[in-house]
Specification:
single chain; 12 strands; Rna Polymerase Sigma Factor, Chain: A; 11 helices; 376 residues; 2 domains; eight-stranded mixed sheet; alpha/beta; 14% strand; Rossmann fold
Length: 376
């Protein structure tokens, strides 16, 4: 597979429903990041639905997960390789009702779908590649704050997100408490655990060890670390689901026409390969590395006196949602959030057989909880 088939957004591509804005930082150095690097400006790709009211008080920020993007709802088509990733939750008459709310979903800093990331070009026209700054979840939220300023939104009605998106919701709630009235946090914890870091690091290594990685500067080589990326996605997808689901769906079945003991594959192997190949066609490997590292750095207590003190400072009304079968971000992590935040509602639990991906797939249960949170 050559680089022309990689699904990151490039200048000249059909924008779809994306809007773009170039944001400058807060001083002469632009955006200064936690690890010490900086960017003079950041282009943010974002999408909006609904109408901002006269008092600018009905805006909701929706935060996507690791391989998501700004296309939270809507069909696939020109500019969008896939349909909206939360189609059952966001839209007219749905839990996040776009006939009532002004909904904003930006592609995250370091991403692959229009916002400045490793595949973007610098002022000289070169892809950033290996030179892209090391960033954290906190840095990503700083860019989103600048986007809110650009849109004239001084306070969000709510900030909502799961997994990596949930990390950003927590950073909003802790770092900018006056900028949001409420928050909905799904399937995440206050800081990355050893398990989560281990799993992410294995995925990062799979990409970096692929000969096509070229130290991160593969964009003009005609190739890329696509086998490594597919393997990384397979490792990740294994943790997004559950052993029970895999047993029911696949068990020890062999792939059609193949015999495992003769060198063929089991059906579960074929499924994980398929998931990896599918991601390769719509995502940039460097972004996968940059965002996975940012998730590893996630810790709302860093520099704030620890997790307990940081969470206790939250003033917005928070709803925390747990997926009962989540083995990547198990319910004990959401229980900790509820225990340590003062202005928090009782923990809401989604019953699901699919594990972590339940925050995307269990739209009926999740929609009901979010609708109640927004009504409150």
């Amino acid at each position: 597979m050559n680089s022309e088939h990689v699904g990151y957004w490039r200048d000249g591509d059909e924008p779809g429903h994306r809007q773009f804005v170039v944001l400058r930082g807060r001083d002469e150095r632009g955006f200064r990041f936690e690890a010490g690097d900086s960017l003079a400006s950041v282009t943010v790709a974002y999408e909006t639905w609904g109408t901002l009211n006269a008092t600018r008080s009905n805006a909701i920020l929706v935060e996507h997960a690791l391989t998501g993007d700004s296309h939270v709802t809507g069909p696939s088509g020109p500019g969008h390789l896939t349909k909206g990733w939360w189609d059952g939750v966001v839209g007219p008459g749905l839990a996040i009702d776009t006939s009532r709310f002004y909904v904003v979903c930006p592609n995250v800093l370091g991403g692959a779908q229009g916002t400045t990331g490793p595949s973007s070009r610098d002022a000289t026209g070169r892809h950033f590649g290996s030179r892209f700054p090391r960033i954290t979840i906190r840095d990503q939220v700083d860019v989103e704050v600048a986007l809110a300023d650009h849109l004239g939104i001084t306070q969000w009605y709510a900030v909502v997100g799961g997994s990596m998106g949930g990390m950003r919701v927590l950073e909003w709630a802790v770092g900018f408490p006056s900028r949001l009235a409420s928050a909905v946090v799904l399937a995440v914890g206050a800081a990355s655990t050893a398990d989560e870091i281990a799993l992410s690091s294995l995925q990062i290594r799979a990409i970096r060890l692929d000969p096509g990685f070229c130290g991160g500067d593969y964009y003009d080589t005609g190739t890329g670390p696509y086998a490594g990326m597919a393997l990384a996605r397979g490792i990740g997808h294994f943790t997004y689901r559950t052993s029970g689901e895999f047993d029911v769906r696949f068990g020890r079945m062999e792939q059609d026409g193949e015999t495992a003991i003769d060198g063929g594959r089991y059906a579960i192997e074929s499924y994980l390969e398929y998931q990896g190949d599918k991601l390769v066609r719509r995502f940039d490997p460097n972004s996968y590395v940059v965002l996975s590292e940012a998730m590893n750095y996630h810790d709302v207590g860093r520099g704030r006196g620890g997790i307990k003190e940081a969470l206790n400072s939250v003033t917005s009304v928070v709803t925390v949602i747990s997926i009962d079968s989540d083995r990547l971000y198990p319910p004990r992590l959401q229980e900790e959030l509820v225990d340590l935040m003062a202005n928090v509602r009782p923990l809401q639990t989604v019953r699901s057989s699919v594990g972590h991906d339940g925050f995307l797939l269990e739209s009926t249960q999740i929609g009901r909880i979010i609708e109640a949170a927004l009504r409150g």
